[in-house]
Design brief:
The protein is mostly helical. 78% of the residues lie in helices and 3% in strands. It has one domain (2-325). The longest helix is centred in the first third of the chain and has 35 residues, at 2-36.
Length: 336
């Protein structure tokens, strides 16, 4: 039975990792559009950008619910430790998402106050992206745990490292948003998106490198995982593949490809997720709790796995169908 429990715990770790990745790449590009919103021309450019994500933006946040709810259900001890450690960031993220959602709807219903709602859309997107990046940084830099509970202060999450990871997330989301607009728009909006994508790509890669180097100094165990054998043999393909994708992305933007930059940007995020796995596996709270330490009882995991097996395929099918139906570019009339 122990073998079954271990297997279930690993399965749940990958389910939650998949949900987090799905949220980051799907909600990431519409948060990125919000981050880039002040750079878009008032009028047609902004309207086309909003219409490009209108059919899918709220469904993208389904994955945030699955990731957060899955963490609570499958790894309750990790949830009990990580949530108090990042309360201010979680609250800021949720308020940013709520404010952004309200702004998305009201900018169409109140043209007189549209500049206000455009500003709210930008601010909500920026705050949500920064908070998500800083939550990741707070996890990686370590969380104080005593007696299976969080033992740190209210402000432990605020460090130069978490600010760096927050800026990296902002840059990465801006890259996704710009590449999405390259794919989904035409005319002056697409020209502007190409320019923004190049700047965002440079910023994203520079900040990825900065965070990676910071990680080596942050924790001796992180350095050992990346710089010593035999882990080096397994970890080395990640930075090599990242460099290769970066070159391909830059060339795709230079030749003015439309779909390729977005796909390659998703690849960069996937490799970033793989690098995160190399850095902390099998810990869910680095140096404190492994996935097995934090896991729910076996019967609970089985019960929840049945639920996921029933609900996840329809979610994937509906998501794929929605993206397929609205696969075209946004025209001058605002429709696909």
């Amino acid at each position: 039975m122990m073998g079954v429990a271990v297997d279930l715990t690993v399965i749940w770790a990958f389910i939650i990792a998949f949900a987090v990745f799905a949220y980051v790449v799907m909600d990431g590009f519409d948060l990125g559009i919000g981050i880039l919103f002040p750079t878009l021309a008032v009028g047609e450019e902004r309207d086309r950008a909003m219409n490009s994500i209108a059919p899918v933006w709220d469904g993208n946040e389904t994955w945030l619910v699955l990731g957060g709810g899955g963490l609570l259900a499958a790894f309750p001890l990790a949830y009990a430790v990580l949530l108090p450690a990042t309360y201010p960031l979680v609250i800021a993220m949720l308020l940013g998402l709520v404010f952004r959602g309200v702004a998305f709807e009201f900018r169409w219903r109140s043209p007189r106050h549209r500049p206000l709602w455009d500003g709210a859309f930008f601010a909500g997107s920026l705050i949500a992206a920064l908070s998500q990046g800083m939550i990741l940084g707070a996890l990686l830099q370590g969380v104080a745990v005593e007696g299976r509970a969080y033992a740190g202060s209210w402000w432990d999450w605020l460090t130069p490292y978490t600010l760096l990871t927050g800026l990296g997330t902002i840059a990465g989301y801006a890259l996704l948003g710009a590449c999405w607009l390259v794919w989904k728009t035409a005319g002056s909006g697409q020209e502007h998106a190409f320019r923004m994508a190049r700047w965002a790509a440079v910023a994203t890669l520079a900040l990825m490198l900065g965070v990676s180097l910071y990680n080596l100094a942050l924790d001796p165990q992180y350095a050992a995982r990346w710089l010593s054998m035999p882990m080096l043999a397994y970890a080395a393909p990640v930075p090599v593949a990242t460099a290769a994708l970066a070159v391909l992305l830059w060339r795709a933007l230079a030749r003015r490809a439309e779909l390729a930059p977005f796909v390659l940007s998703l690849g960069l995020f996937l490799l970033g997720m793989a690098g995160l796995g190399v850095t902390i596996w099998p810990y869910v709270v680095p140096d404190q709790l492994t996935i097995w330490d934090a896991a729910a009882p076996e019967r609970s995991q089985i019960f929840m796995l049945i639920g996921v097996a029933i609900t996840l395929p329809p979610i994937l099918a509906y998501t794929g169908w929605a993206y397929w139906v609205f696969r075209g570019k946004v025209g001058a009339d605002g429709y696909h």
